[in-house]
């Protein structure tokens, strides 16, 4: 057995979805190369700093995987602790954020190496060079410090995911995640990448629009094995856009049905791809256990969709996708982005008008409204700078980019308050309709609930948001879950005032 490699995933807001796939994917190649792996997920490790302190004794290196946002602060805190306790220990950052900004990430004096992009094979080579105490100069896909200068090695060619080993689920305490999220579940990635080039999406930058997918046979074999071994109730597929290959998606559903293993599963998709499926194909997804699909609809304004570079997203497809999913008894969440550069009150009103119609027709649909968040490397940054958006200049500044926080110079003051109220009235109206459609309600109570939607609908149609009496009343006793996870449909919060 070679040295120990410690891998850390910082805490993030919201319930734990499951174990961090990025770390599990790194762990298997490391173990196959003879390294011991210490895996620390702050989502289920209450005193993760104490655990880090214990694990790094005698370790070869300390690896951190992270996304843009508040989890950066905890990554910094942990790295500073490691640097203080083990000044000689190499600290390696990887994941989306360091990949997109390796130079800036390495400006921090507590980070030594950045693994860029697909890291399974790269990180093993880094560990082997550190173990042998030789140069990192020949390791493709990394940036590192060589004295006072930063070296960016050539990119590593993308490996077909079918050539990579299974993630190290044996390192996971499934019981701990059940306690954290309330369900016996895990996450799984059957593919990476998306062929579309939406201007706000980091996936385009990270995967260069290449769809890299496991074979249906491997997906069915691995997932059913996980469900049997760990007695799982649900599997959340982390794929950026699961049904890019429609025949593959249908084959996976067939495989799950034929296996006889029953469980719920969820995924994300774009509506146009689901519309390529027949009604019977979508019913098959439901029969195979699909319980929820999250759609990146973002807007129902053709003009805004054009600015987003989403020519594949058609308004009519939103209705068709909702209908197909209702036939299959599959719940749906439509993501909404508010405040995209160029968007005006008129565009927002059009989006909510269309979504309101979808809400009335299809009770299986929920909404996940979010303020536009400018992540590193996205194509729209030139436009953002023109509008006065200042790009963060350090790792610490990027920590101030959480989903839902409004940092947009063009959406402030009265316009922001108006947009916020518009969105809040829309979601409140939608939630009351959902409550009214509950089968357990008596006809009288259903009529009473529906009567409450009258004033809200009037406000939305007339675009009148002053004197928000309804919202003042709701503050005293809020029953309405507003933001929802695009992946699982779970509620992310219950406070109307925090919707934006």
Q: In a few lines, what is going on in this structure?
A:
Helix 9 runs parallel beside helix 10 (about 245-260). The strands form three sheets. The protein has a seven-stranded mixed sheet with strand order 2-1-3-4-5-6-7, with helices on both faces. A six-stranded parallel sheet has the order 8-11-12-13-14-15. The protein has a two-stranded antiparallel ribbon with strand order 9-10. With about 500 residues, the chain is an alpha/beta fold.
Question: Please, could you describe this protein's structure?
Answer:
- The chain has 500 residues and is an alpha/beta fold.
- The protein has two domains: 4-157, Rossmann fold; 183-372 and 408-498, pyruvate-formate lyase- activating enzyme (Alpha-Beta Horseshoe), CATH 3.80.30.20.
- Helices cover 42% and strands 15% of the residues.
- It is built from 20 helices and 15 strands.
- The protein has helices spanning 21-32, 48-55, 71-85, 96-100, 102-105, 120-132, 174-181, 202-207, 216-230, 246-259, 271-275, 279-287, 302-307, 315-327, 345-361, 381-386, 395-398, 413-436, 443-462, 469-476; strands spanning 4-9, 36-41, 59-65, 91-94, 113-115, 142-146, 149-152, 185-188, 191-192, 212-213, 234-237, 264-269, 290-298, 331-338, 365-371.
- The strands form three sheets. A seven-stranded mixed sheet has the order 2-1-3-4-5-6-7, sandwiched between helices. A six-stranded parallel sheet has the order 8-11-12-13-14-15.
- Helix 15 runs parallel beside helix 18 (413-436) and helix 18 (413-436) runs antiparallel to helix 19.
- The protein is globular, with a radius of gyration of 23 Å.
- The termini are far apart.
């Amino acid at each position: 057995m070679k040295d120990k490699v410690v891998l850390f995933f910082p805490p993030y807001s919201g319930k734990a979805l499951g174990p961090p796939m990025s770390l599990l994917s790194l762990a298997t190649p490391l173990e196959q190369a003879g390294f011991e792996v210490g895996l620390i997920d702050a989502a289920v490790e209450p005193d993760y700093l104490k655990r880090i302190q214990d694990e790094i004794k005698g370790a070869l290196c300390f690896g951190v995987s992270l996304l843009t946002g508040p989890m950066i602060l905890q990554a910094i805190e942990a790295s500073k602790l490691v640097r203080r306790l083990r000044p000689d220990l190499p600290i390696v950052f990887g994941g989306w954020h360091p990949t997109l900004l390796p130079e800036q990430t390495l400006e921090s004096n507590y980070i030594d190496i950045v693994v860029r992009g697909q890291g399974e094979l790269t990180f093993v080579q880094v560990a082997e060079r550190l173990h042998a105490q030789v140069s990192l100069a020949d390791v493709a896909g990394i940036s590192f410090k060589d004295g006072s200068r930063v070296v960016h090695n050539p990119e590593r060619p993308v490996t077909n995911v079918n050539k990579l080993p299974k993630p190290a689920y044996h390192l996971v305490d499934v019981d701990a995640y059940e306690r954290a999220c309330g369900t016996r579940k895990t996450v799984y990635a059957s593919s990476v990448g998306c062929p579309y080039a939406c201007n706000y999406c980091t996936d385009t930058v990270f995967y260069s629009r290449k769809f890299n997918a496991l074979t249906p046979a491997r997906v069915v074999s691995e997932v059913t094995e996980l469900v049997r071994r760990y007695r799982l109730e649900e599997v959340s597929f982390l794929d950026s856009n699961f049904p890019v290959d429609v025949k593959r998606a249908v084959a996976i559903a067939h495989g799950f049905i034929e296996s006889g293993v029953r469980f719920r599963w969820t995924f994300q998709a774009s509506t146009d791809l689901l519309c390529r499926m027949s009604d019977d194909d979508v019913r098959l997804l439901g029969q195979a256990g699909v319980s929820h699909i999250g759609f990146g609809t973002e807007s129902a304004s053709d003009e805004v969709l054009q600015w987003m570079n989403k020519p594949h997203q058609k308004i009519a497809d939103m209705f068709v996708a909702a209908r197909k999913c209702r036939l299959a008894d599959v719940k749906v969440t439509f993501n909404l982005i508010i405040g995209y550069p160029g968007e005006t009150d008129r565009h927002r009103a059009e989006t909510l008008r269309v979504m309101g119609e979808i809400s009335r027709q299809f009770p299986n649909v929920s909404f996940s409204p979010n303020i536009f968040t400018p992540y590193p490397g996205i194509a729209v940054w030139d436009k953002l700078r023109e509008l006065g958006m200042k790009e963060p200049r350090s790792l610490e500044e990027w920590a101030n980019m959480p989903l839902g926080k409004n940092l947009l110079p063009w959406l402030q003051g009265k316009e922001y308050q108006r947009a916020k109220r518009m969105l809040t009235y829309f979601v409140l109206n939608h939630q009351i309709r959902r409550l009214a459609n509950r089968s357990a309600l008596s006809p009288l109570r259903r009529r009473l609930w529906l009567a409450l939607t009258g004033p809200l609908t009037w406000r939305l149609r007339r675009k009148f948001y002053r004197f928000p009496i309804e919202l003042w009343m709701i503050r005293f006793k809020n029953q309405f879950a507003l933001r929802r996870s695009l992946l699982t449909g779970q509620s992310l919060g219950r406070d109307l005032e925090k919707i934006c």
